[in-house]
Amino acid sequence: MATWVRGGDNGRMAAVTPPGWPEGVPPAHTPGWQDRAVLWLLDQCPPDYRAYTGWRKHPIALAWLTGRHLEGQVGAMRQAWREARVEIGPHVPADALDEILGQIEAEGIRLLAASRSARLLHEALQGKVFAPRL
Hints:
Elements: E1 4-6, E2 13-15, H1 33-43, H2 53-57, H3 59-87, H4 94-125
Antiparallel strand pairs: 1-2
Helix pairs in contact: 1-3, 3-4
């Protein structure tokens, strides 16, 4: 059951998605949303995850596992940020280290956003209905 709000000039009803909902995935509880959610979730994981048909058949399990995978990736980026200067700093030019650190930061931000999106999908697959904020 989708949450609907009046939207646009024509007064039609539109489904609500919370901030952080993954781009390209229709609002929860609308036709076809779970199929698109599964594709999005698989895109966040290693390619080998596509071989496990049980996860496709049970998207809630895939969302849960994807969340764990992304949390691990966020942790890896945080650790890389902490260790980069010591571990690779002596082996690359200073400007390269700055570039590398900037890219680690950018990837960490991307992963945090993806982790939030995976949590939202997991909640929706558990039946949560998102309401608009006032």
